[in-house]
Amino acid sequence: MNFNDWTFDRQSQIPLYLQLYQQLREAILQGDFGSQRRLPPSRALADALDMARVTVSQAYDQLAAEGFVVQRSGAGTFIAPQVPLSLVEETQANVRPFQPNFSSWGERVRQTAVATASKTPRPEIDFGFGRSFPHIFPYDIWRKLLARYLSTDDVMLSRYGSVAGFHPLREALADYLTRWRGVVCQAEQVVIVNGAQQALDILARLLLEPGDEVLVETPGYADAAALFALNGARLTAVPVDDAGFCVDRIPAHSQARLAFVTPSNQFPHGGTLPLARRLALLQWAQQHDALIIEDDYDGELRYDGRPLAALQGLSADERVIYLGTFSKVLFPALRLSYVVLPTALVLPFVQAKQLIDRGAPTLTQAAVADFMLEGHFERHLRHLRQAYGERRETLVAALQTHLPNLVRYADEPAGLHVMLYLPEALAETAVITAAAEAGVGVYPAAPYFMRQPSPPAILLGFSGLSEPDIEQGVAQLGGVVGKLLDA
Amino acid sequence: MNFNDWTFDRQSQIPLYLQLYQQLREAILQGDFGSQRRLPPSRALADALDMARVTVSQAYDQLAAEGFVVQRSGAGTFIAPQVPLSLVEETQANVRPFQPNFSSWGERVRQTAVATASKTPRPEIDFGFGRSFPHIFPYDIWRKLLARYLSTDDVMLSRYGSVAGFHPLREALADYLTRWRGVVCQAEQVVIVNGAQQALDILARLLLEPGDEVLVETPGYADAAALFALNGARLTAVPVDDAGFCVDRIPAHSQARLAFVTPSNQFPHGGTLPLARRLALLQWAQQHDALIIEDDYDGELRYDGRPLAALQGLSADERVIYLGTFSKVLFPALRLSYVVLPTALVLPFVQAKQLIDRGAPTLTQAAVADFMLEGHFERHLRHLRQAYGERRETLVAALQTHLPNLVRYADEPAGLHVMLYLPEALAETAVITAAAEAGVGVYPAAPYFMRQPSPPAILLGFSGLSEPDIEQGVAQLGGVVGKLLDA
């Protein structure tokens, strides 16, 4: 056993005795001592390694505490009998790292293509969506609100929070949703979740058996569809038009007990579900004893007058689950969403959440509650509508200038992106690639269509860009599309 | 149709037109207009309600925008043809609120008893556990770190974060776990989760088919067992003694491919798994091609010298999944935990997390990363060990004074609670009730035993109490136990 090639970093944060302990431990586990069970006397090792004897003793003590060695007074320090040489052989025998056997759920996860951040450098002008515009958010107020709860007298943070959510936030939301979204609910029906995906996952697990049919929109919110499929659901894709979900296109023979819709502003196509379709959808749900999930992901963001009331408020018998999120109107990294549940679902949902994650961070919830209660939220929404509305107008004007009669889109004054249907002659990917080469990031619509082939289309998010960038980006896109058409 | 009983709050935040819109909307949906489809002229209604005509017009416009009414110039405002009187009948017909059909998973959730906060007033002296001691946490530093990222120039918050976690935090954890917990890992194997329960849920879903066998400890962490059972697993409870998980008590015929253990400090019994058992457990795992989940929920909290190295570091072939949390060492409301995964599990785990919740809040992760990188974390751990170590000594001393030879407990200088085995003659619930009446909160051990009947025992958490309270609480508990024994 040769200690001379051992190296020690005497500048390191890690105490010397610990560095020695780690190397001795490794040597013992690797069987470097071979059949020799006795460690060198601390004095001898200390001399050999040029360190204080107490350092070696500390290392030996730690090894003894962990059971790697036994110290026999007088006789010295020995590798513990329970440390088998066989462990070493096993180590050699099992160099192959563990390979898991996945469940069928696990296999589905692995087969689910997940949009991952592309490795390519971000384009100069990025029409990425699902972004918020940082310069609008009142960070100074937010800082104050967070700090308010960060004091040693406050025991709130030292306990686990309520699983259903911080109650003042649930009350603030119930009040806000009643006044501004036409939602009919009590605070007890509002449950805070770590993002809308979590609410969908819990609902799918609570309500769906493998093989159950679920209605989704096409084009539609792909991640919701993926989640239902992941949990074993059979998806039936119902087409949308400029007025959203085509209720009359629900297959007559459909056995679906669950439908996922975006009535306020259909994602990603755009368009608001008219009253007649809303009533027809509720009627369908009643007749089929089905439940509707209304994803109101950006219902607040309408730029012509106030938002339309939610579908949930029209349901006389609690057949609509309302999903809302702060990701779009505060910031995505907040990871805070909420769900308004039918009375009969509240307790089971909360019990499930208790088991699978114990609720959202209390501090953030408390800050958001105050943000709402003190009027900052509604003021911020006004600023957002102003800023995003202007950006959207700039985008639409630029489209008319630079892509006249070349693209179709649902001209809904709402949301954070516009979905452009391209000339049939063009390939979606070709446009995206050419745009990227021109320094403009636009995004494919194909992933949102449940049936392929899909019409060539791209998504342009405007919420993260300044107006000049929007104008310039569309100009460049116009050039790209023109070239491709001429080619 | 009589408008006179309608009430308006002219002081309200809600604009008057909106209050009118809401009452008109309700009246239309309730069918209060009966067969009369024409709404009163705006001037007439304005006079009747004593409000400006423009207010009524705004309300009508909103109703029109939502499709409840149609405005025919000259002719007036009419309830839209698509608003059927039948809706009203349906409304009456469906007073019965929606009743969901639960999946088998949903039914299991509903049958899983979940510990909920008791309605009884908190006792003066509460030996509740899973609490942190707020007065130790450096809130001033924490505030500074949070504020650092809350500036408008920082786009971090305006985008969705990385699903696997904020990379600097993953690197800081990999470094810390290597140096202080003997974990062998790269930053890429470290994934941030919203609490350990989420990691267990994802792992159970990825790896377990209904009916698969899982080894758990008894007494043990009940919520982990509940989660495995919820996901269809068949539980095999393996007893523990003062040295933790009894590897030699694993049934010879066991088909388990997964084992959940707490080697650093067995929960809730207490005790550290000795090296011989660790090696035997790893050998069992290799022989059965099984995976081990090591829950190191409070491995940092040892009060005699430094923590023992984790089981994970002993596995030569990545058979151990390491679970750690900030709930105990920072604060529970942070809802931040982490898992160190075998290489082969990283991508599937992250893909699953992407689908079910998109990752943890970025701001908190960034603050924790700096908290670790700037040395605050290890300093805070030293303070915690000091403070909790003293509290534990106070508790143990008080037990020797006030309950001599009456109770047994694993005297492990670690963790945040002590589990007391009571005299067999006493009923667990009787002790808890009597203690509560004496103003002392102690907690049942029965829920942690996978097999009933369980020996009478109680849990005393000391992390949330001052030393005088601990001393006084135990004194009162001693009196209670004495009385019950005499009775």
Describe what you observe in this structure:
2 copies of one chain form a homodimer. Chain A is α/β, with parallel strands linked by helices. The first copy, chain A, has 3 domains: 16-92, Arc Repressor Mutant, subunit A (Orthogonal Bundle), CATH 1.10.10; 120-132 and 379-486, Alpha-Beta Complex (Aspartate Aminotransferase, domain 1), CATH 3.90.1150; 139-375, Type I PLP-dependent aspartate aminotransferase-like (Major domain) (Aspartate Aminotransferase, domain 2, 3-Layer(aba) Sandwich). Chain A contains 15 helices and 15 strands. Chain A has helices spanning 16-30, 42-49, 53-65, 85-93, 104-111, 139-149, 167-181, 196-207, 222-230, 275-287, 343-356, 362-373, 376-402, 428-437, 467-486, and strands at residues 69-72, 76-79, 125-126, 190-193, 213-218, 234-241, 244-245, 258-261, 291-295, 320-325, 337-340, 417-421, 440-441, 443-444, 457-461. Chain A has an 8-stranded mixed beta sheet. Chain A has a 3-stranded antiparallel beta sheet with strand order 12-15-14, with helices on one face. A two-stranded antiparallel ribbon of chain A has the order 1-2. In chain A, a hairpin with a 2-residue loop joins β6 (234-241) and β7 (244-245). The radius of gyration of chain A is 30 Å and the shape is elongated. Chain A starts with 15 loop residues before the first helix and ends with a helix. The model of chain A has no long low-confidence stretch (mean pLDDT 88). Chains A and B meet through α1, α3, α4, α5 and α6 of A and α1, α3, α4, α5 and α6 of B.
